[in-house]
Sequence to fold (931 residues):
Amino acid sequence: MKKKLVSLVLASSMVLSLAACGAQSTETAPADTQTSETAQTTDATTETPADTTAEAPAEPVGEQTINVCLASEPASLDPALNSAVDGATLINHLFSGLAKWGLDASGNLELQPDCAEELVEGVTNEDGTVTYTYTLRDGLTWSDGQPVTANDFVFAWNRAIAPETAADYGYMFEVVDGYADGKLNVNAVDDKTLEVTLANTVAYWDELLAFPTYMPVREDVVANEAWATDPSTYVCNGAYTMTSWDHNSLITLTKNENFYDADKITMNEINFYLSDDANNQLANFENGDWQMIDDVPTNEIANLKETYPDEFVTAGQLGTYYVCWNINENILPSSSTLTGADKAAAENEIRNALALLIDRNYIVNDVAQGGQVPASSFVAMGLTDADGSQFYENAGGNSFAGYYDVSEDAYEANWSAALETLKKYYTFDEATQQFTDFPTLTYLYNTSEGHKAIAEAIQATFAGIGITMNLENQEWATFLDTRKAGNYSIARNGWLGDYNDPISFLDMWTTQSGNNDVQFGKGDNASVQAYSLDITDLGYETKVENGTWAETYDVLISDIKTCTDPNTRYELMHRAEDLLMSTGCICPIYFYTDLYMISSNVKGFFSSPLGYKYFMYCTITG
Amino acid sequence: MNTKTLMYIVKRILLAIVTVWVVITVTFFVMHAVPGGPFIGEKAVSESVMKAMEAKYGLDKPLGVQYLTYLSDVVTRFDFGPSLKQKGRSVNDIIFDGMKTSAKLGLIAAVIALISGVILGSIAALRRNKIIDRIIMIITTAFVSMPSFIMGSLLLIAFAINLKWFPANGASKNGLILPVLTLSLYPMAYITRLTRSSMLEVLGQDYIRTAKAKGVSGMKIIFGHALKNSLIPVITYFGPMLAGIVTGSLVVEQIFAVPGIGRAFVNSITGRDYPLIMGTTIVLATLIVVMNLVGDIMYKVVDPRITLE
Fold:
């Protein structure tokens, strides 16, 4: 009997400890855009301040080995299959594509030719397609000594879009002619000449060339499905080779002496430790074992900023944290008799008013505390406009950036304006300063202390005027399922762009998009004729009054995708965001930042706004 | 070993097989019933990619067919299939890697816990109510009541950050010392208390008094008679305890970044990596069932009075 009891107690304590941990891990691992979509970034022309710690390498000391920790075990180090930021950083060290990100003489991030001798201009053909012809450098070799040929690029790119490869980022080749037919218009003219034709002019083409999915791979190497999981079969062509991979523990990269640019690579060995626990990362940083960590515990941020002023870094990132509404959720009081377009217009106005009530400065400064920037538009800070200025600053056409003024001074005025709007639709009790007939809302978020704190801040704000909002949290994968299916009324959301072009924030809201969490044009909203679009002033024929979402937004996005004039194209993208924001279904909270710590004796480090980190030009000084 | 015992063991093995089969079946169907899937992320993948992946891993087939295919792969080839998340790796590989670390960690911790627990427990019993007994009891009470995440964090702060004696991650040289220590403290304290109380009970028995009366030396009484009998409850505890710590402790692995099986298990669930969920569950369940069985048999070996039925 006794032994039964003991084993019972043991068994249950084990189960309990696992359960407890489950909760803990969901909290740390899949935070915001955890799957860490890869990246995008700044255009070569923009002067994005690269986060460089120093220019000239001071006196290097010791073996020149750096220990860093970005995340836990990467899901894949196959350039075609990777879809995470940490994986992209590793691939950038292991592979060399046609282009790469580097620093110019004054320390600004720029695109530079890598395998290509130069980043040539495209030649526009009669049918509007654009052809680029690249010449590969001399003496490019794979880590096993074989030469890198133009054919390796042709193979790699077509492989990435093949359905059987099942690459998340296959759509990065959408701009290349032939993508829709499953055979890219890219040819190896000879071993050293690569010719690629795009469907039309693409402003961010050079940037795509530096994207991990565009790296070459060799056919005989990837024939082995497990090639990218073991150093002995991992054949690459970049600045480093993989010398060991102790799964879930440590990946070691060693400088590739056969790399064409090996002379410039100053770091001889990089140890990528694999841990997703922010507290553990911090412990290793604090005791000096690791020189760079890519995650910090949220509740330590304020403290770390003070203790490590030179080592705690807040860098820009191309992403927006926002709250989204289910467009089909009825939020009018039960007494309301509005229907159709009138109902839709009223709901748009209400949602936009509620967005004004949220104190974003409080959320950023006191809740999230990570140097984030209050947001009032969806396309994130860091994405550029046609003239190279910030797209978000031009959004909304106001004297301030975005669709409403989110400066601290404007908060009181926003509050009064919101209250006036809401009073049009709901009963307001002047004595208690509360609305009495606002339907109860439910806010859905994925289990995490950070998301919970933000949810509570919004809940408290709404409660102040009598709006009851219940909070509901779900485990990550369940949450994604619920949100995609539209089984929610309000949900937290976040988005990181894939490249520096606002379309990466806008095409996700078309009716059929897999990311259309708001359910635009779906369910009851499919038949709602409440959206207007007039782009006749830009030379288009489209003029719709009170049309459906499919007749307006979807049309606009397809126009943007085929537009070849940059100025018109950017103007169309502003119109798309205007339409999107007018619904009030997207309530931006803040623009993301990338927080990390790097030891002050590491020189020559830089990162990109996509979150990619570059260690190859680092030196460790005394 | 008589036939009765043999029959008992055979019966228990059969029962163990049935238990593992039930675990497989229940886990398989519950896992598929949970919302979410392995291929959804914050960014949606295109329908064709989703279809291609489902076809590749056989997830497009009816659940019953998937179940039978899985069962036959496991039974006939010990093949747990490919991981859906760690692309290109097989579940067998992942489990093998994780178990290697967890087993090393767990076995060392278990041996430390057993040896030091028995020694401390015996000392406490023999010096009952003396100052040394009090100290041992206070310390072990603290260790037994302190959850491992607090213990781990305290050790981390003290020895890795402040004193810098040991690294804070399992991948570095000497990196397993702190996790082993964290893992061993609870069972050590528990074994100490078990040994103490059962030894006190044994010391009060008539046969000990008889031995004393016959003039047997104190040492011989303790090692020859008292200790052996007082270890019976410790042995009962040791089997399941070993299963528990060898199969990985997520908390300790997380705190010290140790690449063990516990992390693989929990991550497989949050990521809906179906084959890895099944693989880790089967391995862990089998280990626990086997350890319990071994514990019961050991029980019989040290105490012939017990009949196994």
Observations:
- Chain B has two domains: 1-81+274-309, 103-259.
- Chain B touches chain A through 71 residues (CB under 8 Å).
- Chain B has 13 helices and no strands.
- Chain B has a mean pLDDT of 89.
